[in-house]
Amino acid sequence: MRLYRQTFYLYRIVSYRKTEIWKTVDWLTIILYVVLVVAGWFSICGASYEFDNVGLFDPSGRPGSQLMWMGLSVGLIFVLLMLESEFFDVFAYLIYAGFIVLLIATIFLAPNIKGSHSWLVLGPVRLQPAEFAKFATALAVAKLMNTYGFKLTVPKNFIAVLSLIFLPMICILLQQETGSALVYLAFFLMLYREGMSGYILLSGVCAVVFFVTSMKFSDVTVGDTAVGELLVSFLILLITVILIQIERKDTRAIQVILGTAGVACLGGYAASFFMPVDYSLISIGVILLVACYLVFLSIRNWAWHYVLIAVFALGSLAFMYSVDYVFTDILEPHQQIRIKVSLGLEDDPSGAGYNVNQSKIAIGSGGLTGKGFLNGTQTKLKYVPEQDTDFIFCTIGEEEGFWGAVGVIVLFVTLIFRLIAIGERQHSAFGRVYAYCVVSILFFHLAVNIGMVIGLCPVIGIPLPFFSYGGSSLWGFTILLFVLLRIDASRAERH
Question: Do residues 454 and 440 lie in contact, with contact meaning Cβ atoms separated by under 8 Å?
């Protein structure tokens, strides 16, 4: 029966697509897409054009090559909009499975390109399956969450969703493409919108804060006190108290915890007159006592919230002590140096920090109004590596200046808010979930790419949507966006 249904819809896909689609599709989003893609092409021209070499429209050069991909994108868009909207729902799992197989094959078949096995070389064409797997994962997650009676709060449902998200992520990590793999963490923003506990999101934020704090102050000591451990312990204790206030409003428990911490600090201060004191060990001891106290309260009051808060405190403590191991034994040397440079722990202007330093110089040299199209000296002289791919934003800053960079950000923010509006007007969980997947992925790419170009984030190598050079990137985001527009257009057709 299922095979018959899929065959029936496949027949409808290749049949004549009624022209009303052009009346129901969201034209504002299409206009924003066209503006961003065209602006991206001009940025690629500015980053890669050489006056004594090929022209802007020569397909052997990057501007001409990107223009070709843009032209092919028009055909791709037409095909996506002509498909029956039910196609994406019916074949979601099949599309997902196909890309999982392709990602696995890429691990073994792709050549080593800049230390990564993520590109399939087909003659003169190179494709990165990871860029296309995003929309496939979004479709599969949306289909699963559209199942009748689906509730994200049910553990088995939550695990199933996580499995769909983490499977392509693991495959991409095995390709040694860490940046593309981290993009899949953006799906947690969608899950939060769909009912995932905010505490899971809080745990992720805390993990980042604890990691950065531990690394930033890892070698800082005051007397015998390890400052990094002391600060993280203080944050753990503070968040624990806040959680108790939010979940239980137990003033007495908070007073006991704060009193214990105060007595421990006074005791440590008194002991410091007679012996060296490590206040970080005292703070860790306080956290252990607090955890035991919370377990006691949980048993006495039959309230599981106390136990969960205790688990958070102990888990955070364990995470703090695992930071050094993760950084030293799991991360690659080039990843370690990038993180150190980003946190200001090392100054490597001619090595790991070269890209970011030159990028900031290029952006700063643009001033308010920029140097003008094709007049960027930093980009023309090739001071910035990857200036037409991952670091394309520095070209915008140099040639178009502050106002041009702000304009690009405004365009992206406008697009994101428009997609949120499209998601909220969907009549099915399938359309809404897919829309928020698109929003989450775009936001993650935008925030991280700009952050790494201006030195706020470590360099992890992810492109700026619609701007960075490359057919895989352009097509990946085009498919991601126009699948949503086709789903949204069908909503307007039926209602």
Answer: no
Separation CA 262–CA 183 (nearest Å): 43
CA proximity to 178, closest of 62, 339, 412: 339
Strand partners, 127: 120
Residue 87: closest CA among 482, 477, 492:
482
389 contacts 470 by C-beta, under 8 angstroms? yes
**CA torsion angle for 153, 155, 158, 162 (degrees, to 10)?**
150
C-alpha–C-alpha distance, residues 227 and 278, integer Å? 10
10-residue stretch averages of pLDDT, the chain, 495 residues long: 51 49 87 94 81 65 86 92 88 95 90 76 80 94 92 91 94 86 92 87 88 83 83 92 89 91 89 85 91 91 88 91 79 72 66 72 83 75 73 87 92 96 92 95 93 81 88 91 92 57
Q: What DSSP line would sit under 225-249, residue for residue?
A: EEHHHHHHHHHHHHHHHHHHHHHT-
For residue 161, give both structure tokens: 């969703």
Q: What is the dihedral of CA 158, 164, 167, 169, to 10 degrees?
A: -90
Lookup: tokens for 28: 């504002």
In whole angstroms, give the CA distance from residue 307 to residue 247. Answer: 12
Report the phi/psi class of residue 84: left, alpha or beta, with left for phi > 0 and alpha for psi in -120 to 50: beta
Helix (H) and strand (E) counts in the chain: 21, 4
